[in-house]
Write a structure and sequence with these properties.
467 residues, transmembrane, membrane, transmembrane helix
Length: 467
């Protein structure tokens, strides 16, 4: 117990220290902060922004009591989750095939295309991966209540976790274990998912409608054959070397490795089926499977190399007395060799992507840091609101809503005059968004931002769009 608390405390300390570097939050975490603030004011509106996600908002409702510190507080939680996912990958990988497998599993997660970017920007993927990995570990250690708690946390972040939580709850119920906790999980999950949307969107399925809306670039829903696009995204987000190594672990390993592989494959299949049904199929939805796959990959790389080295050693051994020690030495370095090979192959695949992500993280931090000075140069928040309604791009609306204490709704509506337009230059090569329009006077222009105005009375929210 003390060791576990020390690991968690260390993760939070390291996450807090990481804020000494420039940082920014992604679109979704900023929206969760807005929703946390609105929940505290009893004005929650979930009709715009990302789809509803209960687990982060539980934190942001509390954090927004300290409004200026709320973004940093959430980022500490999210980054601590990413670090705990690395620890979970090590523990599960080591359980499957020893410490070198655990080390390789950590590298497979840390060098994957999803871990650095999402953890750094405060998305929930690191927390999701940690919840899934530690649910498996807790179950294997016999701590069923902790496993149920972790599975419930995962189910409050991704709906794909619901069937797994349901099956685990049914298993516990039939064993007459933790029935009160199972009932609590069975009540909390639907209440947290559907209750806020029922109040804040006028319908319990608001999150589902949003998830079935316009997908973000790169989502499998945009592909000609979404089902196969999800499978391709699996190979990308896990990396192909890790997928192959995970399959090897299922082939060479025991029942535990095969069950974990089956669970990861079931998660991927569920995402694929949901994408065919009209959901976005964003590659981030596959992170839980990728985390389990990383632990398997470490085990598969070590198992395959150990067997290969043992086979070579057996073929080359002689009747001499040196055969025994030679075989022992070969077995000793086979595991680290397998781990190193997996790490090298994953890095070859993702090195360029990680370099680009690091560059973009710096650009996002610079853009976020430049926003408040931009508003000050424009006369301040109140001056802009007094001028007219605020409009901005779809990608910037959660940042503008959070920083200017505005509802997200209608911020990205068509900027018909009169209005104040906060234009942003995003990170994919496009110019300022939304496009320029006649009749507006440039007020402030910086490298990534511009404010143009056409002052006049106008409501912030479109009355015709009220539910």
């Amino acid at each position: 117990m003390r060791a576990s608390l020390a690991v968690v405390a260390t993760a939070f300390v390291l996450a807090a220290l990481s804020l000494l570097l420039p940082w920014a939050l992604a679109f979704d975490p900023l929206a969760w902060l807005v929703w946390g603030r609105e929940t505290g004011r009893l004005t929650l509106d979930t009709t715009t922004g990302p789809s509803w996600k209960p687990f982060p908002v539980v934190f942001t409702v509390v954090f927004t009591l300290w409004e200026h510190g709320a973004p940093a507080l959430w980022l500490i939680v999210a980054r601590a989750g990413g670090l705990l996912a690395l620890v979970g990958a090590y523990v599960l990988g080591a359980r499957l095939a020893g410490r070198w497998a655990g080390a390789a599993a950590v590298a497979a997660v840390a060098l994957s295309p999803w871990w650095l970017f999402n953890t750094a920007l405060g998305n929930s993927e690191g927390l999701l991966a940690a919840a899934v990995l530690w649910a498996v570990i807790a179950h294997l250690d016999g701590h069923t209540r902790a496993a149920l708690a972790c599975a419930t946390a995962a189910a409050l972040m991704r709906p794909e976790a619901w069937p797994f939580l349901g099956l685990y709850g049914l298993w516990l119920w039939r064993r007459d274990e933790d029935r009160a906790a199972v009932l609590a999980a069975g009540l909390v999950v639907p209440l947290m998912w559907f209750g806020p949307d029922l109040l804040g969107a006028g319908g319990a399925l608001g999150a589902s409608h949003t998830a079935r809306g316009v997908p973000s670039p790169g989502s499998a829903k945009l592909a000609d054959v979404p089902f196969f696009a999800v499978l391709g995204d699996t190979a990308t987000i896990c990396t192909l070397p890790a997928v192959i190594a995970a399959a090897v672990a299922a082939w060479l390993g025991g029942p535990l490795a095969r069950r974990i592989f089956a669970a990861a494959a079931a998660w991927v299949l569920l995402v694929a089926v949901m994408t065919v049904a009209g959901y976005a199929g964003n590659p981030r939805y596959l992170v839980a499977a990728a985390a389990l796959g990383a632990a398997l990959a470490g085990a598969g790389a070590v198992a395959a190399t150990t067997r290969a080295v043992a086979a070579v050693t057996r073929r080359g051994k002689t009747e001499s007395a040196a055969a025994g020690p030679s075989q022992a030495r070969a077995a000793a370095w086979a595991a680290p060799l397998g781990a190193a090979l997996l790490v090298a192959l994953v890095l070859v695949v993702t090195g360029g992507t990680l370099r680009d992500q690091w560059t973009e993280l710096g650009q996002r931090a610079a853009a976020a840091d430049a926003f408040d000075p931009l508003i000050e140069r424009a006369g301040g928040r109140d001056a802009l609101v007094d001028c007219s309604r605020i409009r901005t791009s779809a990608r910037a609306r959660s940042l503008v809503a959070w920083r200017l204490d505005l509802p997200m709704r209608d911020l990205d509506a068509r900027p018909e005059p009169p209005a104040v337009i906060i234009r942003s230059k995003w990170f994919y090569g496009q110019g300022l968004e939304p496009p320029s329009a006649p009749g507006y006077t440039p007020l402030v222009t910086t490298e990534r931002w511009q404010i143009v105005t056409d002052c006049g009375p106008a409501p912030q929210l479109n009355v015709s769009s009220e539910p």
